[in-house]
Design goal:
Blueprint lengths: L2 H24 L12 E7 L12 E2 L2 E2 L7 E3 L4 E4 L2 E11 L2 E5 L1 E3 L9 E8 L6 E9 L12 E7 L5 E8 L7 E8 L8 E8 L2 E6 L2 E6 L13 E9 L15 E13 L2
Parallel strand pairs: 4-7
Antiparallel strand pairs: 1-18, 2-8, 3-4, 5-6, 6-7, 6-18, 8-17, 9-14, 9-18, 10-11, 10-17, 11-12, 12-13, 14-15, 15-16
Bound molecules: 2-acetamido-2-deoxy-beta-D-glucopyranose (NAG) (3 copies).
């Protein structure tokens, strides 16, 4: 081979190599896949802007009166910067409550029936934190809970590294039937982990870092939703019946940080 061509090939190789290394190191979670064979990306938020994209999200203002929780959700505690969504939990006097936090939903702006839904999340640490990434049916305001179903992709109680995935359903108001699984994710509050479900007509599979740990199949008592569109919710609750009161050593403020959320549908 001509010496000049050899040199040229060498430089092209060098440039491609450097670009590859650069793109890996600049990404905050370079090991996460950005596409899956057999799936089409239909929705994503990488949180690259300097504010929450209100064309796809609703910021909830809500004095929470479910589950004996202690927080008020206020839009001020939702901050998008440096490529992340931060939901900040603060200890502060606010309209008779002692904590503020945040909740966002895609209701009316994005919803899906079936799909692969995933988010890369780092959670706060400490007794009293209750972060969640979950799905509710768009018509849930007209249906009483949980007759339309509820898919909890990820819930955690901040004092330990257990990750919960749960499906709720009932034929009657407030008569909750549920089927849930759990797994351990030791780095839940020190690193980003990928929490997801694959929701198909005949089953829902729960995964952490794309490793399945639980699934539900439809039964007579617990059918799966097949027609309702569901929307996405991120929130960081404080206290409440499930996790119990805030621990004395729990530190405020802390964040539930989301690197990205993506939704895929199976390609036919
Ligand atoms: C929480 O999020 C806010 C807003 O992005 C940021 O300024 C703060 O440093 C974060 N706190 C922690 C502990 O990461
Ligand atoms: C807020 O904290 C104060 C002081 O600990 C307590 O007396 C009060 O009951 C708390 N309020 C609520 C709504 O939990
Ligand atoms: C589902 O979301 C779309 C926007 O993508 C919206 O137009 C529609 O009203 C939503 N469906 C329901 C039942 O709210």
């Amino acid at each position: 081979m001509n010496k000049y061509i050899q040199l040229l090939v060498f430089f092209i190789f060098l440039i491609v190599f450097i670009k590859d290394v650069k793109s890996q190191s600049s990404s905050s979670s370079s090991t996460d896949p950005i596409s899956y064979n057999g799936w089409n990306l239909i929705f994503q938020d990488e949180f690259e802007g300097d504010s929450l994209d209100l064309s796809i999200w609703n910021q909830i203002s809500q004095s929470y009166d479910y589950n004996d929780e202690l927080e008020d959700y206020i839009p001020e505690n939702i901050v998008v910067e440096n490529g992340y969504l931060n939901i900040i939990a603060k200890q502060q006097d606010y309209q008779g409550h002692n904590y503020t936090s945040g909740k966002i939903t895609t209701s009316g702006k994005f919803n899906t029936t079936f799909g692969r839904l995933e988010a890369s999340i780092k959670m706060p640490y400490g007794q009293g934190y209750w972060p969640a990434f979950w799905l509710m049916p768009e018509d849930s305001l007209n249906l009483c809970w949980p007759t339309g179903g509820e898919i909890d992709i990820m819930e955690n109680l901040g004092q330990d590294d257990t990750i919960y995935g749960t499906y709720h359903y009932s034929t009657q108001c407030n008569q909750n039937e549920e089927n849930g699984g759990k797994t351990i994710t030791e780095s839940y509050s020190s690193e980003f982990n990928l929490f997801s479900v694959i929701w198909d007509p005949n089953q829902i599979v729960w995964m952490v870092n794309n490793v399945p740990y639980f699934n539900v199949v439809p039964t007579t008592e617990l059918p799966l939703p097949t027609t309702n569109p569901f929307y996405i919710i991120f929130n960081l609750a404080i206290g409440g019946d499930w996790g119990g009161p805030v621990g004395e050593s729990t530190i405020f403020p802390q964040n539930m940080t989301v690197d990205y959320v993506r939704v895929y549908k199976r390609s036919q």
